[in-house]
Every structure is written in structure tokens, then in C-alpha cells.
Write a structure and sequence with these properties.
Helices cover 38% and strands 17% of the residues. It is an alpha/beta fold. The chain has 2 domains: 2-167, Ribosomal Protein S5, domain 2 (2-Layer Sandwich), CATH 3.30.230; 191-411, 3-Layer(aba) Sandwich (Rossmann fold), CATH 3.40.50. The strands form 6 sheets. The chain has a 5-stranded parallel beta sheet. Strands 1-2-4-3 form a 4-stranded mixed beta sheet. Helix 5 links the parallel strand 8 (134-138) and strand 9. Helix 7 packs parallel to helix 18 and helix 20 packs parallel to helix 22 (487-495). It is elongated, with a radius of gyration of 28 Å. The mean pLDDT is 91.
């Protein structure tokens, strides 16, 4: 007997339809699984065998051949267990239900229970685009699947429930459609508790308002890390479309929480020992997203920036420009989104006290140059805002007065972002502007051009730095509600580029 059951394989962030063809014939009992399966798929034999027996069904003592078509697509993971089990039941006539048009996803436990799998959201989105509307998957994935409209999702706890549903003995109720509510304001860090640092806070607000990258430079203990952790609290709440994009990435990476959808902007803080692969994505088998993709629509915070491996930092240059990264390995190539805001921090020298008014720097000029030269010019060129974070006086620290709250700053940021949404008719920010948009929206007066020309020559800036100064100036103008960029906007934007040639 021959049966065909549909499942889906995950390739990067896209799903590919897979037909689980099961053929059972008389002969020496055997089980052959073909179709380019990996080790996890091959091991489904024992999981399916035990699950069938412990669910009150028979595992046939015949020659079983399971083909996962198309054969030229690599199959990875345990997502095909349920489809294979249903295929065997149909081929042995233990299940007479018509499974046409139903997609089966899920891992089987030995007792027949259905275990949740990773990557459900991108699989469902791809399957819906391919014309499929009915899905049976583990109950553990129900919340994640509930946010896709226009499909019927049935969540089962066991193989027995799946069989009873298909047979009509105990039909499952469709999973209700979930309602997205942004949790963007739930950040536990607030600018109200950051004492002083008016300049750094202003730079942070400008950076978030325009989606610009920012570098915080200052001695240890001045609040650089705390400032960075406050960024999500002043960022606009994610739209549903942005939340779906982020959830797809986190689902594939296997780090999705129980809520089923990521409702807060990501804040990723990889350690300085992170490898290039962990930062950019890849892997020996499945190509998984890296830290820069997990920070999509959020913040990538690199603390102690010069301590990261040079090759790891240089790998950030292309994603910072393009907002995507293509990971290529021998097994294929996958493009992951990587539209993130980079926030980095560093000390001014190895001991951290260079330029401090309170402490003495013990570093030699050669040691300072060597430390700063760990950051290449092309990388600094892509960081729009570079600001110094000074030490805070004791009286400021001991004061009971609260600073301006994050929610107040967030409202100003949202007003600036609204101007940009109207300008670009989408969710892009000023930092994403190309040369054509710079010409259209960032016209400079003669006075502004003169200021920019003098800065360009005195600071020995690059063409990219010039464009980024104009983008930052456009953001400052948006924050003030100004239609045209004025000289004071250019001057403030230039002041954020003082460390371009710090090496």
C-alpha cells in the first residue's frame, strides 16, 4: 500500500513542502528512509515505532520505505515524525481519513505525545503562501501558530488525539486567532535612574529617533552599559509586521518564549569572545541566524568594543550597510534579515582613565594608539554618533531627584519617527536613506554646506561620513519639527564625529 502525507522542511527562514511517501510491501521486515535526511530524521524510525505501539496502533512487520520528496532538499530535525506516523497508519489502513491538503508537523515522544518543534511560524507562513490552509501540530506550538490569520490550526497533545480527530471520533477545535499587543513599554531600565549624562542622553535620543548607530566612549563606571540598556525603553513599539519578522528568526533559532510572539524589541549583548559564526550566523549543519539577525528590529549592544576579535567586528560592516546578511556554507546559502541598531561602548584607553578629570591615566601613548587601532576606520565610519560619557559627580549620584523618564523621551522619539514614516511611506528611518533620498529630503543651504565643507576637510572625513552627518542632521531637524536642515543641526551632527580618526 502507498500513502502520501504533506509536511514542510525549513531552509533558512523559508519553508519547503515535503511529501512523506510511505510504501509498505511484503518481504523481510525493514525500514528505509530516503530523501536526503539528516541523523535526527533517520532516528524517527524508533520514535515512530514506539509512538504507534504506545498509542494502541500496530507497527507493520513488513518492508517499509519512506521517501521524503523532493529528494534534492536536505531534511533536518524531528518535524517530520508526525507526517511519517500518519503515513504508516494510512498505508496499513489503520486510518481511512482523507489527509489531502493537511500539513502535519511535530516530533513524537516514545509514549506517543507530541513535542513542540522550532521554526513553526516561518513554516506556516510559507505553507499559507503555497496554498495550504489546514495544519495539525503540537499543542506546545499553538500560541505561536495562532497569530497567522486565514488558516485552520489544530493543536494536539498526542498521536492518539490526531488519529481521533482525523477519524471524526473526537474532533479538535481550531486554535483561535491571537491578538497582538505590543509589550514595548515593559523594559525594566529607565533613563530616570541614570544620573547626569545630559550629553549622552541627548545623543541616545537622536540615535533612536533616526535609527543611527552609536558609540559610547568613557571611563569605567560612568553608566555606559546602563544607558545602552535603556534604549529599548525609548524605542517605538513594534508593529505586528515587525513582530512577525522577529518571531520568525527567534523561532528558527529555538529561543522563542511561551508567549508565541516576540512583543518587545530584541536587545542582544553577545560576549566579546563571540565568534564570527555566532555573530553572523551559520553552523556545521543547519544554517542558523546569528546575533545580528536575532537583534533584527532591535539593538545589538557590544560592550568593550575593542575586546572583540577584529575579524568579528569587520564582519559587521556589510550588514550595517545593507540590513541583511547572506550566510554561505558548503550546504548552501541563506539570507537573514539584520536591520538592527548598533550600540557599542569602550574605554578611552586600556586603563580607562585617559581624559578623566579625577583619575590619572597610566597608559603610554603607544599603548593608547594600539588599543584604539583595534577599531578600523571603515567600522567607525559606519557609526553615526560617537559620544563621550563623562564621570558623574557624587552629589548627582546621591540626589533623590529623578531625571526625565524614558516614557517622556519615547513620545518625542515617536513624533520624530512619525515624520519619517510620512516621508518614506513605510517603516524606514533616516539612517536608511540612500543618495537619491538625501538629495530629495536633505537639501542644504549655502551656510550649511560651508560648515560641512570645513568639517570635512579639518576632520579628514570620508564620503560615507559626510552622508551620515547629513542623515543625523535630518534627524535632529525632525526632532524639532523643522522642514529644512539648519546650521545648528549640522554643527550638532558634526560634533558626534570627533572620534572618527581616534586611532
Amino acid at each position: 500500500m502507498l500513502s502520501k502525507v504533506t509536511s514542510f522542511a525549513l531552509t533558512g527562514l523559508d519553508g519547503v513542502p515535503v511529501e512523506a511517501e510511505t510504501d509498505i510491501n511484503n518481504g523481510i521486515p525493514s525500514y528505509e528512509l530516503v530523501g536526503l535526511p539528516d541523523a535526527a530524521v533517520k532516528e524517527s524510525r524508533e520514535r515512530v515505532r514506539s509512538a504507534l505501539k504506545n498509542s494502541g496502533r500496530k507497527f507493520p512487520l513488513q518492508k517499509i520505505t519512506v521517501n521524503l520528496a523532493p529528494a534534492d532538499v536536505r531534511k533536518e530535525g524531528s518535524v517530520f515524525d508526525l507526517a511519517i506516523a500518519v503515513g504508516i497508519l494510512k498505508a496499513t489502513e489503520q486510518l481511512a481519513a482523507d489527509c489531502t491538503g493537511i500539513v502535519f508537523l511535530g516530533e513524537l515522544a516514545l509514549d506517543g505525545a507530541l513535542r513542540s518543534v522550532t521554526g513553526i511560524l516561518p513554516l506556516l507562513i510559507s505553507a499559507k503562501a503555497a496554498g495550504f490552509r489546514k495544519f495539525i501540530l503540537p499543542a506546545g506550538n499553538a500560541s505561536e501558530a495562532s497569530y497567522i490569520e486565514g488558516i485552520e490550526v489544530y493543536a494536539a497533545k498526542s498521536l492518539r488525539e490526531v488519529v481521533d480527530h482525523l477519524s471524526g471520533l473526537a474532533p479538535l477545535a481550531p486554535v483561535p486567532v491571537g491578538k497582538y499587543v505590543s509589550g514595548g513599554g515593559a523594559c525594566k531600565f529607565d533613563l530616570a535612574y541614570v544620573k547626569g549624562q545630559a550629553t549622552a542622553k541627548r545623543a541616545l535620543e537622536v540615535a533612536v529617533s533616526g535609527g543611527h548607530n552609536i558609540l559610547l566612549i568613557g571611563p569605567p563606571g560612568t553608566g555606559k552599559t546602563m544607558l545602552a540598556r535603556c534604549i529599548p525603553a525609548i524605542m517605538p513599539d513594534m508593529t505586528f509586521e515587525e513582530a512577525l519578522e522577529v518571531t520568525k528568526i527567534h523561532s528558527v533559532a529555538g529561543i522563542l518564549g511561551s508567549g508565541g510572539i516576540v512583543d518587545q524589541r530584541p536587545f542582544r549583548t553577545p560576549h566579546h569572545t563571540a565568534t564570527t559564526v555566532s555573530m553572523c550566523g551559520g553552523g556545521t549543519r543547519a544554517l542558523k541566524p546569528g546575533e545580528i539577525s536575532l537583534a533584527h528590529h532591535g539593538v545589538l549592544f557590544l560592550d568593550e568594543l575593542p575586546e572583540y576579535h577584529r575579524s568579528t567586528l569587520e564582519a559587521l560592516r556589510q550588514p550595517l550597510e545593507d540590513g541583511v546578511i547572506t550566510v554561505t556554507r558548503s550546504g548552501g546559502a541563506v539570507t537573514f534579515p539584520a536591520n538592527f541598531m548598533l550600540c557599542a561602548s569602550m574605554n578611552p584607553c586600556p586603563c580607562g582613565n585617559y581624559g578623566s578629570a579625577d583619575k590619572v591615566c597610566t597608559c603610554t601613548p603607544a599603548a593608547i594608539r594600539k588599543y584604539r587601532s583595534r577599531l578600523s576606520g571603515p567600522l567607525l565610519d559606519r557609526i553615526d554618533i560617537q559620544v563621550e560619557v563623562d564621570s558623574v559627580k557624587y552629589d548627582d549620584l546621591a540626589s533623590d531627584c529623578l531625571e526625565e523618564k524614558s516614557e517622556v523621551v519615547k513620545k518625542r522619539v515617536e513624533r520624530a519617527r512619525e515624520i519619517q514614516r510620512e516621508r518614506f511611506t513605510d517603516t524606514r528611518t533616516n539612517a536608511d536613506m540612500g543618495e537619491r533620498e538625501l538629495k530629495a529630503f536633505c537639501a542644504l543651504s549655502k551656510e550649511c554646506e560651508n560648515i560641512l565643507r570645513m568639517s570635512f576637510e579639518s576632520l579628514k572625513l570620508s564620503a560615507r561620513a559626510r552622508s551620515r552627518i547629513i542623515k543625523v542632521a535630518r534627524t535632529i531637524a525632525d526632532m524639532e519639527g523643522a522642514e529644512q536642515i539648519r546650521p545648528e543641526h549640522i554643527l550638532e551632527a558634526v560634533s558626534y564625529r570627533r572620534y572618527d580618526n581616534m586611532g
